[in-house]
Amino acid sequence: MNNYKWLVTTLYILFLMLPIYWLLNMSFKTTNEILGTFSLWPQDFTFDNYKKILTDPTWYNGYINSITYVVINTVISVTVALPAAYAFSRYRFLGDKHLFFWLFTNRMAPPAVFALPFFQLYSAMGLFDTHIAVALAHCLFNIPLAVWILEGFMSSVPKELDETAYLDGYSFWRFFLKIFVPTIAAGIGVAAFFCFMYSWVELLLAKTLTSVAAKPIAATMTRTASTAGYELGLLAAAGTLTIIPGAFVIYFVRNYIAKGFALGRV
Amino acid sequence: MNKTPNPKAWLFVIPVVVLVAFNALIPLMTVVNYSVQETFGDNVFFWEGMKWFEEVLRSERFHESFLRQIAFTGMILVIEIPLGIAIALAMPRKGPWVSVCLVLMALPLLIPWNVVGAMWNIFALPDIGLLGRMINGLGIDYNFTQQPVSAWSTTVLMDVWHWTSLVVLLSYAGLSAIPDAYYQAAKIDGANAWAVFRFIQLPKMKRVLTIAILLRFMDSFMIYTEPFVLTGGGPGNTTTFLSIDLVKIALGQFDLGPAAAMSLIYFLIVLLVSWIFYTLMMRGEEN
User: What's domain A54-263's architecture?
Assistant: First the structure.
C-alpha cells in the first residue's frame, strides 16, 4: 500500500520535471545542435546562451523590469489589503458582503477583455511603458486575492486579542502594527507569495502596457525569438532563468503555501 | 465569529475600493461604450444600440469558440480535480519529503505563462521534442502543429501539467487539517479506505475543493497565453478558445464594437457561473 503511494507521487513529480528538464537541456546546447541532432543531454555543452543574456542589456533589463513591477505590485496590494481584510474580518458595515463579492468578481474578469481599455486608460494618463502602470494594472486581480487570503488568516485570530490590547491602553494603529501584524505574519507571507506569483506569470496586460522602458522578460523572449529566427538555445536559457525567482520565493514560503488557501474563504 | 457593527470600517476599505474601481470600472465603461457604437476612425462614433450583441450572439464563430471553451474547461475539471485529490492522498503526511514534494510540485505554478507555452512547444515538437519523439516512437502518428486531435491533447496535457499542483496543494491543506482522532475512530469502527475517504476526508476537503474548482473554472475559462504560444489557436481554428478569439477580433482586426460586445457577454458568463457556485457553497456552509 505504502509503496504504491510512493509510486504515484514519484511518477507525478517525474511528469512535472520532464518538460523543465528538456528546457534546461536545450539551454546548454547551441541552436545548431538543437535543430541538428536529437540527444537526451547536451553533446557540446555550452554556457554561451546564459552569457549572452547576462551581458546584453536588452535581455537582462527584461528581468529587472519584471522584478521591479512585481515587487511594486506586491507591496501595494498587501499594504492596502491589510486594513481592508481587517475590516471584513472584524466589523459589519453597510454593504460589506456585496463589496466582498464585488472585489472577488474582478478576479474573474478575463484579462483579454481589459487589454485594450487598459492601454487607452494608461496612455491617457501618460503612464504607458512605466513600471507603475503594470504594477497598478495587476492590482485588479491581486488586491482581491490578497484581501481574500488575509481575511481568512485574520478570522482565525481570536477577537480577545484585540480587546485585551485596547484594555491595556493601546491605540488602534499601535495595536494593529505592533501586535496584530506580527501575529498574522504567516498570512502576510502567503498573500505576498500569491501576489508575486500572479504578477510574475501574467503577460497579456504587462505586454500591452509596455513597449521598451518597462518591457517584461517574458515579452522580450517572444520578440527576440521572432526577429532572430527562433534562437532556440537562447530562448531556452531565458526561459530557465524565469523559473529561478519563483523557485526562490517558493522555497521560503513552502510551509505556508498549503495553509494559505485552506484558511482562506471565498 | 461575531462581528461588531461599525460604519467607520468603510474607511479601512476605501484604498482597496479606489484602486480596484479605478482598474475595473473605467475600462469596463470603455468596453460598454464601444459595445453600443460604430466607428469608422477619427474618433467619430455612431450609436448602434444592441446591434453588436445580436451579431455576436448569432455568429457561428462565437458559438464555435464558446463550445470549444466549454469542452476544454469541462475536460480540465474532470481530469485535474480527481487527479489532484488522488495525488494529495498519496503524498507523505510527515517527514522531510513533504517539503521536497511541495516545492517541486509548486514549481510549474510559478513559471510565466508564455514560458509554459514555449516550453511545451519545444517539448512536444515531433522532430526536436522529447514528448513528440516518444509518442512517435510508440508508433503513433503525432504532430500537434498539424493534427487537431494532437493539438487538443497537447493543450489539455499542458494544462494538467501546469495546474494540477494547485488542486494538490489545496487538497493537501484540507487533509492536513483533519485531526488524528478521526482516523483512530474510523479504525476502531473497522472502516475501510474507501469509507474513510467518503465519510471523513471528502467532507473535510469540501471547502478547499470548492475553492479549487472555482479557481480552475475561472482560470481555464479565461486561458489565453499558454495555448496561444503553444498552438497559436491552430491548426485552423481548432484550439481557438474564447480569449484567443477575442484578442484576434479586438487587436487583430480592430473590430471594436463586436469585440466589446463579446467581452461583456464573456464576462457575464464567468460572473454568472461563479455567482451560482458561490451562492450554492454559502448555502452549504450555513447548513
Answer: Orthogonal Bundle (1.10)
Q: Give me Rg for the CA atoms of chain B.
A: 23
Residues of B in contact with A139 (CB under 8 A): 19-20, 23
For residue B285, CA distances in Å to A252, A266, B204 come to 33, 11, 12
Q: Cα–Cα distances in Å, from B44 out to A243, B32, B35, B55?
A: 46, 16, 14, 21
When mean pLDDT is compared over A196-210, B74-88, B128-142, B180-194, the highest value belongs to: B74-88
Residues 22-41 of A with CB under 8 A from B: 22-23, 26, 34-35, 38, 40
Please state the domain extents for chain A.
1-46, 54-263
Residue A19 in contact with partner chain B when CB distance is under 8 A: yes
Q: Which residues of chain B does A251 touch, with a Cβ-Cβ cutoff of 8 Å? A: 103
Please say whether the dihedral angle defined by the alpha carbons of residues B275, B280, B281 and B287, taken in this order, is positive or negative: positive
pLDDT tens string A141-174: 899 989 988 888 888 888 889 889 989 989 988 9
C-alpha cell at B179: 485531526
Considering only CB atoms, which chain A residues are within 8 Å of B284? Answer: none
Q: Can you tell me which residue has the cell 512605466?
A: A130
Q: Is A264 an interface residue toward B (CB < 8 Å)?
A: yes
Per the CB < 8 A criterion, the answer to whether A72 and A192 are in contact is no
The whole-angstrom distance between A258's CA and the closest CA on chain B is 5
Interface of B with A in 45-84 (CB under 8 A): none
Q: What is the pTM of this model?
A: 0.86
Pick the residue from chain A with its C-alpha nearest to B32.
A117
SS3 B34: helix
Strand (E) or helix (H) holding B24: helix B10-35
Q: What is the pLDDT confidence band of residue B266, given thresholds at 50, 70 and 90? A: confident
- Rounded CA-CA distance A108/B68 in Å is 19
Of B23, B164, B222, the CB nearest to A136: B23
